[in-house]
Design a protein that fits this description.
mainly alpha; 4 helices; 149 residues
């Protein structure tokens, strides 16, 4: 097996010729994204205090909650777009996985800009590294050719 970087932008995006398990795991990950997005969008506190442990009883707490709701909306838009691409253009699976792998990296970078005071470690922060390595492995395996050319 060898890597084919051209799979990121395939000539025929309507066909995925990689391992099916990669698409199945990617689908499960994207379903988790939808759940996470909906929690941020629809939970009364956007998950800010109840999940992330951010004190929203402080001055400006309503603004924190509003930002979490907006974050959920943006996450949901991205998830829906990725689902459309995932089902309409299966050949774009490597590009979708690359996009998903960049998310925890950029969230880590954003988190380094300023410390966040919480009562515990938010799940997103705790699982950032695991998500990145899982998605990186999925991305790399999605680039493998199953058969020699």
């Amino acid at each position: 097996m060898k890597f084919d970087i051209n799979k990121v932008f395939p000539k025929n995006p309507s066909r995925y010729e990689g391992f099916r398990i990669i698409r199945l795991i990617a689908l499960l990950y994207m379903l988790v994204m939808v759940v996470r997005s909906c929690i941020h969008l629809f939970a009364p506190d956007g998950g800010a205090q109840s999940i992330a442990g951010i004190d929203t009883s402080v001055e400006g707490g309503d603004n924190i909650i509003a930002i979490f709701h907006q974050w959920g909306a943006i996450q949901l838009i991205l998830a829906v777009l990725l689902f459309v691409l995932f089902f309409r253009y299966p050949g774009l699976t490597p590009l979708i996985l690359l996009t998903l792998a960049l998310d925890p990296v950029l969230r880590f970078v954003a988190g380094q800009q300023m410390n966040l005071t919480t009562t515990g470690t938010p799940p997103g922060e705790a699982l950032n590294g695991v998500a990145f390595y899982l998605l990186l492995v999925l991305f790399l395996v999605s680039l493998w050719n199953k058969k020699p050319n």
